Amino acid sequence: MPIRVYLAGPDVFLPDPAIWLDRKKAICAGFGLTGVSPLDPLADEPAAWALLPVWRRIALCNEAHIRGCEALIANLTPFRGPSADAGTVYEVGFARALGLRLFGYATVAAGFLDRTLAHLDGSAAQSTDGSWWDADGMQIEQFGLFDNLMIEGGIHGSGGALLCADQATRWHDLELFEQCVQTAAAAMLEAIR
Predict the structure, then answer these.
(1) 59 burial class (0-12, 13-18, 19+ CB within 10 angstroms)?
(2) In the CATH hierarchy, which top-level class contains the domain 3-111+146-191?
């Protein structure tokens, strides 16, 4: 039976999310994985959920999809700011708490510190000890990582991997996603041998 992998990321906000996620699922299938999209209907969805507001039903369905998977692949490309999409980060943490194997990719190579400083547009200041501080007096994380340490810590702690590289088109290039799927498939298939 193929290994089920939840496909987390802000891809659901693209103008053609179903087509895009179907392409990602096809890539997963090519490596022996079953991609599970946040847009997939949930088998056995409780009838009572139909009475809930749409946003609540989406959240419950996504959590149920994640529970039904063995791994998660997250698009961690910075989204509307210097960090990954907040909903995707929640799903990464949720999956980590469930013990799933985590894999991530981002189509931007610049590190978190550089992206944060660019986002702050000159309002940050560096102390004599080399640390950076924002205009509100809050220290800026600078561990040389791609994103917040908890995201990377969770991915690596699960035995997964994070791939980052500048891609020709930030949201429509599947080359790095395919590399991430290949990495995930190799790790997941090795674990069941």
Answers:
(1) middle
(2) alpha beta
Check residue 121 and report its DSSP letter.
T
Look up tokens 């991609």; give the residue. Answer: 35
Q: What is the pLDDT of residues 135-157, one digit of tens each?
A: 999 999 999 999 999 999 999 99
Pairing of strands 33-36, 3-8: parallel
Give the span between the Cα atoms of 180 and 13, in whole angstroms: 21
Distance of alpha carbon 128 from alpha carbon 17, whole angstroms: 47
Burial 180-192 (b: 16+ CB within 10 A, else e): bbebbbebbeeee
Tokens of 146: 């791609």
Collapsing DSSP states into helix, strand and coil, what is residue 165? coil
Residue 123 token pair: 């309002």
159-174 pLDDT, tens per residue?
Answer: 999 999 999 899 999 9
What are the residue boundaries of the structural domains of the chain, listed by start? 3-111+146-191
Query: Which two tokens mark 155?
Result: 């991915």
pTM: predicted TM-score of the whole model, two decimal places: 0.95
Q: Which ranges constitute the DSSP H helices of the chain?
A: 17-30, 54-67, 86-97, 112-120, 149-157, 175-191
CB atoms closer than 10 angstroms to residue 57: 16
